[in-house]
Amino acid sequence: MKMSGVDIRPGNIIEYEKGIWKVAKIQHTQPGKGGAYMQVEMKNLEDGRKTNVRFRSADTVEKVRLETQDYQFLYADDDMLVFMDQDTFEQINLPADLLGDARAFLTDGMTVKLELWEEKPISVALPEQVEATITEADAVVKGQTASSSYKPAVLENGVRVMVPPHIESGTKIVVDVYEQTYVGKAS
């Protein structure tokens, strides 16, 4: 399936220069002169190389169609992660770096989607958003709530996110796993 270069999102698997690449980070840039472009950081899923590529809106890339299968995360063993097929109970070991920064949000028993290309697991997709508890949050500075400012906070998994001033330590929030940003207060 073809897609425009500016529609690329983190977690997408694309075909680029005869290889299969997973998008790690994106940055949309609109310079004062010339057209807008998307700066994309990608990792090759076959040999582990990383690259930065600039895509313009006129550029198209092929989004790779992958088979997806639900697996349950069991435990981490050094730099390997152990997953179990929920239908056959077959276990599979995958390298931890396959998840990148999203690894911090992986919890025991979590259901994830394993993405298979030619029946070989090449990617693990976590839920887009998860609930997490704040363990540390800076105190509110008087008058700070008048503007839409944010303050740093640390989640139970050690990840730092920016949250609104009214969020305190011990509060459960919803976090975007791939952007590592505050989405809202958990209900």
Quick overview:
The protein has strands spanning 2-4, 13-16, 19-29, 37-44, 50-56, 60-63, 67-77, 80-85, 91-95, 111-117, 120-125, 129-137, 151-155, 160-163, 172-176, 181-185. By secondary structure, the chain is mainly β.
Strand count: 16
Estimate percent helicity.
under 10%
Radius of gyration: 19 Å
User: In the residues, how many domains can be counted?
Assistant: 3
SSE arrangement, N to C:
EEEEEEEEEEEEEEEE
Helix/strand/pairing class, anyone?
mainly beta
Main pleated sheet = 6 strands, antiparallel
User: End-to-end span in angstroms?
Assistant: 37 Å
Number of helices: 0
CATH class of the largest domain: Mainly Beta
| CATH topology tier name of the largest domain | SH3 type barrels
Unreliable stretches covering 5 or more consecutive residues: none
Tags for this model:
187 residues, mainly beta, SH3 type barrels, OB fold (Dihydrolipoamide Acetyltransferase, E2P), 3 domains, six-stranded antiparallel β-sheet, five-stranded antiparallel β-sheet, 53% strand
Description:
- Helix content is 0%, strand content 53%.
- β10 (111-117) and β11 (120-125) form a beta hairpin.
- The chain has a six-stranded antiparallel beta sheet, with no helix packed on it. Strands 9-8-7-10-11 form a five-stranded antiparallel beta sheet, with no helix packed on it.
- It has 187 residues and is an all-beta fold.
- The protein has three domains: 2-63, SH3 type barrels (Roll); 67-125, OB fold (Dihydrolipoamide Acetyltransferase, E2P); 129-185, Nucleic acid-binding proteins (OB fold (Dihydrolipoamide Acetyltransferase, E2P), Beta Barrel), CATH 2.40.50.
